[in-house]
Amino acid sequence: MTLRLLAFSLFFTALPAFAQVVADPPLDAAAPELTPESTRLVEPPVTAPEPPAQVPLQIDIDPPKRWGLVIHGGAGVLEKDKMTPEKDAAIRAALKAALDAGGKVLASGGSATDAVEAAIVILEDDPHFNAGRGAVLAADGSIALDAAIMDGSDRKAGAVAGVHIAKNPIRAAHRVMTDSPHVLLTGMGADDFVKEKGLETADQKGWFETPERLRKWEEWRKEQFSGVDVERKFGTVGAVARDMEGHVAAGTSTGGLTGKKWGRVGDSPLIGAGTYADDRSCAVSATGDGEYFIRVGVAHEICARVRLSGEKIVPAARAVLDETKALGGEGGVIVLTPDGQMGWSFNTPGMYRGGKDSTGRERVAIYGDE
Ligand code: ASP
What share of the chain is helix, strand, coil (3-state, %, to 5)? Predict the structure, then answer.
């Protein structure tokens, strides 16, 4: 193992399982020093030669521009002995691809909202996750998708719930934010918006539905239980990002719960419940038992604790998840602040998750003990 890899793995393994935080070094760490040489006066010679061409002095007084990105692909009963090596590898590759896509946007000076969208699109297109392609089936066998995005710089937000045709619901949510006077569009209206804005559409059977999700739905139909995910594997996807301007954003996308009825909407597209971003505090994307996350207002509650009491993100997230669990709800969150804290917390056995930043750190993980 190279020294760099060793240092990297020591850094992360030293963190406690179920609640880990990645903290950036101080922003002014690279500030250059003025030396006596740079200010010394030199006597001119009697016959002054032509002065040499000037080398302009440049001192960058701004802190280095830095960015960060954290993603999740759902929390739940994710245990090593129930996972095949192929699936484990495919999930990790998808998480890495999402980090790369979002990281590319941020590294080239793009906005946190664009990075969140880019990362989530990769996960929506991957059938392993319960979002976009591969989303779970509702009670009537249809696929109804929810997504939200929020910009922490001005707290603008956009969301769709129960949309059926948007190939990438996060893009639809983003357009609601930028191209409509509203925050949340639902059902047929959201589908109309997608068509009207010329967003890419996809077929229920031809694109969204996968044999694996159909099989789960058939199992669900036999059992006829509702309100909980069949496998307690949530599979919702989300991202939080900080761009080089220091702004944060959050986004979440999901198919909700297998067998959901009556136009059920979970926490993911609800601003303040599953998704929230505010430059004054942090950005949060959640995954878990939506009904409980709505009741607690998980994402906003974490941001409020950080803003009003100055709490660090992991204790704040843990306190809010404990409160949610006391009511009966489980799940996890990813959190990131404008001042460089990045982290996650979950109270399920595992959570698909990853993080990457401009200092070169990158990590993906699945199980609680890694
Ligand atoms: N929170 C989502 C919902 O309730 C489910 C999930 O996280 O997978 O719709």
Answer: 35, 25, 45
Is it the case that residue 217 has pLDDT exceeding 70? yes
Could you give the C-alpha distances from 369 to 14, 236, 286, 322, 327, in angstroms and in order?
A: 11, 21, 20, 19, 25
Each residue's pLDDT tens digit, 96-134: 999 999 999 999 999 999 999 999 999 999 999 999 999
Q: Which atom of ligand 1 is nearest to the CA of 288?
A: 7
| 285 CA distance to ligand 1 middle (Å) | 11
Q: Are 120 and 261 in contact (CB under 8 A)?
A: no
> What are the backbone dihedrals phi and psi of residue 295, each rounded to the nearest 5 degrees, phi first?
-60, -35
What DSSP state is assigned to residue 362? E
DSSP 204: I
Token digits of residue 51 = 């002065």
Q: In what order do the strands lie in the sheet with 275-277?
A: 19-23, 341-346, 331-336, 283-288, 275-277
pLDDT of residue 14: 35
Strands, sheet with 145-151, edge to edge from the N-terminal-most edge strand: 184-186, 156-163, 145-151, 248-254, 237-242, 68-76, 350-357, 362-367
What is the overall mean pLDDT for the chain? 85
Q: Which of 56, 24, 78, 109 is nearest to 235 (CA)?
A: 78
Q: What is the DSSP code (8-state) at residue 201?
A: B
The ligand 1 atom nearest the CA atom of 331: 7
CA 102 to chain centre: 10
Average pLDDT (295-318) is 96
Check residue 29 and give its pLDDT: 39
In the residue annotation, 236 being an active-site residue is answered as: yes
**Domain ranges within the chain, ordered by starting residue:** 8-22+63-367
* Ligand 1 atom nearest to 130, measured from its CA: 8
Which CATH code is given to the segment(s) 8-22+63-367? 3.60.20.30
Q: Which of 2-6, 68-72, 225-229, 364-368 has the lowest mean pLDDT?
A: 2-6
Q: Ligand 1 pocket: which of 228, 236, 260 to mutate (most atoms <8 Å of CB)?
A: 236
The residue type of 114 is D
Which secondary structure element, helix H or strand E, spans residue 334, and what is its range? Answer: strand 331-336
